[in-house]
Amino acid sequence: MHSEIKRIQELLAGQGYVADRAIATSVYLSIALRKPLLIEGAAGVGKTEVAKVMARSLGTDLIRLQCYEGLDATTALYEWNYQRQLLHIRLSENSDRTIEEREAEIFSEPFLLKRPLLDAITRDVAPVLLVDEIDRADIEFEAFLLEVLSDFQVTIPEIGTIRASATPYVVLTSNRTRELGDALRRRCLYLWIDYPSFEKELEIVRRKVPDVDTRLAEQIAAFMQLVRRVKLEKTPGVAETLDWTAALLALHREHLDRDTVEETLGVLFKHQDDAALIRTQWLDRLLDGVATLERDGRPWTQERIAQVAQRLEARR
Amino acid sequence: MDPGAYRAGRAAAGGPAVAHARWANLAANVVGFCRLLRARGLAVGPQEAADALRALVSVDVGDRREVYLALRAVLASGQDAQQIFDEAFWQYWGPRPEPDLLPAPAQEGTLVLDARQALDRVLLEWQDATEAEDDGEGERLPAYSPVEALTRKDFSTFTPDELNEMARIVAAIARRVATRLSRRTRRSARGHLVDLRRTMRHSLRRGGEILEILRRERKVQKSRIVLLCDVSGSMDLYSRFLIQFVYALQHATGRVETFVFSTSLSRITGQLAHEDLRAALDAVARQVPDWSGGTKIGRSLRDFLDHYGALLDRRTVVIIISDGWDTGDVDVLEAAMDELHRRAAKVIWLNPLLASPGYEPICQGMRVALPYVDVFAPAHNLESLRRLERYLGTRR
After folding, report:
1. Cis peptide upstream of residue B361 (ω within 30 degrees of 0)
2. Per residue in B329-341, pLDDT tens?
3. Which pick of A10, A85, A86, A299 has the fewest CB atoms within 10 Å?
4. Any idea what DSSP says for residue B316?
5. ipTM
6. B383 close contact with A: CB closer than 8 A
7. What residues of B are in contact with residue A28 (Cβ under 8 Å)?
8. Which of residues 166-195 of A touch B (CB under 8 A)?
9. Pairing mode, strands B224-230 and B316-321
10. A4 and B73 in contact by Cβ < 8 A?
């Protein structure tokens, strides 16, 4: 492995982020080639987290732009500080400057409110710019963003063109609620993050919740692997796994049993229907799967769990 | 971490001459690989090829797994694209190694890479290649949209009881599709957004007193929609529902023109304008002579182009709803599709069959039309209609 990729992997690990090779390689390339990194994947697989740990390991700031429908350039780029402008007009009421002079004065940098995009390109040290859930913004905004990402410069009519002093590292995330434009895709490196494998999830659990009992952690990770095979409204992600682990720890449980899981279903499933479906149709089978693994002995692997899962599905 | 530092330390053993030969070889292979991806429908051009080479300069080219990951990050910018990429990669660069044999570290030390020179050469090669193959492999490939598994209820399985409810939902979707507003704003006397910037400037001229609040409003996206709906026999199951959708769509916005066709074309915009759906459908039935007959898609499209071609401009989205079973002349169809594609902003083909498991657009009509279609999507249930919204932007 390239030493720098290894280093990135270690840096991310140092921040508590378990990155496989694909993630580390993409992050590295995005830094080395200075290309925006577009990360897609289901909710809760740790897309946003990549940007956060990237900023921390680069020792730079994270600037976040959360997208939503209706987000427009004024909210993303800059806005004038109207209160301050008004105040200034009031205070300079008796000055003998012309209207043009006063206008130029209030539409100048001291009265400019920087929003995330402008902020990101005017820092002395390149920050990490996280454009979160770009799929939620409209197509018009996507086009506008593309402009900014192509040139890293912004034109403000009253002031002129502002060029980036240091090109920011850019990470975009998308939950795929809408197809992104090809032009944007082509600007970016692409990374698809899937739900983690058993091994990876186990490592995440142990790293993030160090107090957890090894066996319980294994049971949790295995249970998650099995439960993700059930067709649900919202498949639980890594965030749910960690919440659940914390909940089980708080309840002083040492292993998974029916009562324990039933009590804590609300932590794992955010949809009433999902929780009901699991409780009525799947819970026994899932626990059975975990029990089978226990009987067959360790070590548990992704492969073993996949076999068990297949048998469970065949029994439907 | 300084990105420049990544390239440091790579200049080591191995004579430049040897390295150059190897690099040129690798570069040529990358170009060949890019061409393969392009032939399979990925948007891979010179820019992407150049990025791919820059990426290879930055990673360990002796490690195949790393080369794979790097090229994938650069060249396959989407989940579907990654699937295509995966298949192509192992095919082009040799079979997929066993997982435990994966990390085969570089044995021959590092290469001295003059990336710039290599890039120039590769770009030249690329340009030659594109010119040479433009009439062959370089043809436009259609933008397939991902087909989701057929988990939701198919139109054809609705019971009569469910129809009223469905009509209501369909109308709601159509309204949403049609009234999609642009997020750009414009000045307006009565808009609901306050234009603070202009207000401020305006007030300066009155000594800083805000006497008047200036406003903006959202611009309505002015794309026109032309619907061409197949009502031939093979579409019978679906057209009843689709006509409802079309009716609702037309009522939600004034900028929809609707045509139905089977062996000939009829404009039904006027008939659908009836306030009452039933009356509208009656009027359509009277107007259209060969409802549920055979299909001559090509001739119908030609008719449309000849008589209503004025409806087409760079802001017109054409939606064809048909299963593509054509009993007419294929050449006529192809020529008509070509012209549609050139004159309209976008051509969307909704095919109710597309969601059926194992369906492939092999029937002749569909196969001929596909290269001229920008979006090829299913339209067999409410969910698929709902997703229509995202295709309606006018940019290609």
Report:
1. no
2. 888 888 999 999 9
3. A299
4. E
5. 0.78
6. no
7. 6, 58-59
8. 176, 178-179, 181-182, 185-186, 188-192
9. parallel
10. no
Residues on chain B touching A192 (C-beta within 8 angstroms):
79, 82
Separation between Cα atoms, residue A224 and residue A236, nearest integer Å:
8
Q: Which residue of B has its CA nearest to A231?
A: B151
Distance CA B380, CA B378 (A): 6
**Angstrom distance (rounded) from CA A181 to CA B66:** 28
Give the Cα-Cα-Cα angle A88, A92, A94 (nearest 5 degrees): 155
d(CA A166, CA A82): 29
CB atoms closer than 10 angstroms to residue B12: 9
Task: Give the integer Cα–Cα distance in Å for A254 and A213.
Answer: 7
How far, in Å, CA of B106 to CA of A270, rounded? 48
From B48, B73, B196, residue closest to A80, measured CB to CB: B196
The residue written with tokens 């032309």 in the block is: B226
Which pair of structure tokens corresponds to residue A257?
């049993």
- Three-state SS at B118: helix
- pLDDT tens, B145-167? 222 222 244 555 555 555 566 66
The mean pLDDT value for B77-90 works out to: 88
DSSP letter for B290, please. Answer: T
This prediction's pTM = 0.60
Q: Per the structure block, which two tokens stand in for A227? A: 């439960």
- Among B358, B382, B320, smallest CA distance to B154 is for B382
Across A295-316, average pLDDT: 86
**pLDDT 10s digits, B15-69:** 344 444 455 677 788 888 998 898 888 888 888 888 898 888 888 877 888 889 9
The answer to whether A2 contacts B204, with C-beta atoms less than 8 Å apart, is no
DSSP letters for B48-95: HHHHHHHHHHHS-TT-HHHHHHHHHHHH--SHHHHHHHHHHHHHHS-S
Q: Which residues contact B361 (CB under 8 A, 6 or more apart)?
A: B324, B351, B354, B367, B370, B376
Residues belonging to chain A? 316
DSSP class per residue in chain A: --HHHHHHHHHHHHTT----HHHHHHHHHHHHHT--EEEE-STTSSHHHHHHHHHHHHT--EEEEE--TT--HHHHTEEE-HHHHHHHHHHTTT----HHHHHHHHTSGGGEEEPHHHHHHS-SS--EEEEETGGGS-HHHHHHHHHHHHH-EEEETTTEEEE-SSPPEEEEEE--SSPPPHHHHHHSEEEE-PPPPHHHHHHHHHHHSTTS-HHHHHHHHHHHHHHTTS--SS---HHHHHHHHHHHHHTT--S--HHHHHHHHHHH-SSHHHHHHIIIIIHHHHHHHHHHHHHH-SPP-HHHHHHHHHHHHHT-
CB-based contact A21 B208, cutoff 8 Å: no
- For residue B238, the Cα-to-chain-centroid distance in whole angstroms is 23
H or E element: which one contains B301?
helix B297-308
